[in-house]
Amino acid sequence: MLYEELGKRQAIEQLVKRFYEQVYADELLLPLFPTDRQRVEQAQIVFLIQLTGGPKQYEQYDERMNLAMIHRLLPIEQAHAERWIELMTLAVAETISNPEAAARLIERLRIGALNVLRICDAHRGG
């Protein structure tokens, strides 16, 4: 299972911490993110754990909230999605020691980022 291959919760927490260090220093992406970085990081940890086959943890979150609901009103454009994947790829390279698992994770996240972009475009009528 990808979750174990990545290094379980500890590795995902390190990945998320490194990723958001980059995001919150990035002029393009920063305006899309709330100031409550801790909440954003915790939600991303929960999401990545479940995305990779780890334990389900969404009972503490509103189950109606999914990627589409969370992102649909944000002004996410192609440049944002590309930068998000670029920073995530860098963070994965810096924190995940298993290259095969890292590549699989990036591919899943790339698909997710493109879906979010599609949802935002559709919501804007674009």
Question: In a nutshell, what does this entry contain?
Answer:
The chain is an all-alpha fold and 126 residues long. It contains six helices and no strands.
Using brief descriptors, characterize the structure shown.
Globin; iron; mainly alpha; 126 residues
Produce the secondary structure layout.
Layout: H1 2-6, H2 8-23, H3 37-51, H4 67-71, H5 78-95, H6 99-124
Helix pairs in contact: 2-3, 2-5, 5-6
What does this structure look like?
By secondary structure, the protein is mainly α. The protein contains six helices and no strands. It has helices at residues 2-6, 8-23, 37-51, 67-71, 78-95, 99-124. It is globular. The mean pLDDT is 89. Keywords: Heme, Iron, Metal-binding, Transport.
CATH-assigned homologous superfamily? Globins
Separation, N- and C-terminal Cα atoms: 37 Å
User: What value does the average pLDDT take?
Assistant: 89
Poorly predicted tracts of residues: none
Quick one: biggest sheet? Answer: none
Query: Looking at the chains present, what oligomeric state does this protein adopt?
Result: single chain
In the CATH hierarchy, what is the architecture at level 2?
A: Orthogonal Bundle
- Derived structural class: mainly alpha
Number of domains: 1
CATH domain class: Mainly Alpha
> What best-fitting shape do the alpha-carbon axes yield?
globular
Share of helix among residues?
A: 55-70%
Please trace the helix and strand order, writing H or E for each element.
Answer: HHHHHH
What's the alpha carbon Rg, rounded to whole Å? Answer: 14 Å
What is the total tally of β strands?
Answer: 0
- Tally of helical segments: 6
Any idea of the CATH topology?
Globin-like
Beta-strand residue fraction: under 5%
